[in-house]
Amino acid sequence: MAATATPGTQIVAPKPCISASHRVSRSRIPYFGHEPKVSFQTKLRSLSFISATQPFPKSNGCDLLNSERHVIKAMSGSSDKQPLPGLPVDLRGKRAFIAGVADDNGYGWAIAKSLAAAGAEILVGTWVPALNIFETSLRRGKFDESRVLPDGSLMEITKVYPLDAVYDCPEDVPEDIKTNKRYAGSSNWTVKEVAETVKQDFGTIDILVHSLANGPEVTKPLLETSRYGYLAAISASSYSFVSLLKYFIPIMNPGGATISLTYIASEKIIPGYGGGMSSAKSALESDTRVLAFEAGRKHNIRVNTISAGPLRSRAAKAIGFIDMMIDYSLENAPLQKELTAEEVGNAAAFLASPLASAITGAVVYVDNGLNAMGVGVDSPVFRDLDIPKSNKS
Ligand SMILES: NC(=O)c1ccc[n+]([C@@H]2O[C@H](COP(=O)([O-])OP(=O)(O)OC[C@H]3O[C@@H](n4cnc5c(N)ncnc54)[C@H](O)[C@@H]3O)[C@@H](O)[C@H]2O)c1
User: Fold this and answer.
1) Of 36, 42, 88, 335, which sees the most CB atoms within 10 A?
2) So what's the ipTM on this one?
């Protein structure tokens, strides 16, 4: 089991048994459609209002049998799953694992929210050095404002797993990382171990999201990038996706979907996006096609990547020129508006849903159309051209 606490809760238990903070709206009751292999006790423990160290409350007049009946109903999928009107992105009964969530500013968080809004149960994988602060912030309610879903309920994260996607299994972890104090207190965080723990906890998942990247020399031009920096960028930003699929596909239900995040620097020159990160994104896109074939044929799993426009995330701010890229997009993209993380989240929810059942091996651009431009129309050479400006009404 992962050595982390489980923030949030998913189940509506009978009122006398839980505090108000544990109550969630009816729309957040999960459907455990595919997981009968897990024991009832394990399921109870995995539900976050009962932590692994806290026994199920027996005092204060709780009707335990009633509670159990209630939980069993939620887990059995026998809840009244009514068809929604229209053509909705309906992910009720699906479980998603999102790798690369460590705050509420990035694409991973936005994708988690959109998947949750569509009804999916949310598990996240958080980089070990960022785990403590993320869990503490979650617990203290620092993210509560950004947890609000369109229906007014709060996004619930059923479990946070420590993860370092640069390591596949314990044998790969070097001594200096094993003894690093930022890793002390966490265990089972290599990709293989996380997949095994998710399997123990929940049996299966339906959606896998890779929203992580790292390039230690990203601020250096490619010509000045070391072999170490280049390979580290590929390892953290590209191979990590291959590794996640390798270990998670065996616990994914057929018909499932996987999504990663890429950037236009994979195919066009973006000065400033260095350190081998452009190469890493090219590899990620190429792998998306090959993995789509392999995962599609063998497991009926779809593999897509979203080429997202610029967002002021923590990782992007570290590169140092994100505001320039946002300004450039505002000036030059067909749609003259700032891209929101939610727009990428919603595209991911669509791609993960049955509505996208024939889409695989694709690079899907969610960037206000910037990728389609052949020139930057804000260049002074175009000053005499009558270029339409958006009507920002
Ligand atoms: N922000 C942008 O402008 C932009 C544009 C296009 C694509 N993207 C891509 O979106 C994805 C998410 O990035 P973001 O910009 O939302 O920033 P972010 O900081 O929210 O996400 C990056 C995450 O990667 C995690 N991470 C780093 N190394 C890791 C490792 N070894 N194991 C596990 N997790 C690790 C970090 O802790 C962080 O949570 C990345 O793939 C990024 O390249 C971002």
Assistant:
1) 42
2) 0.99
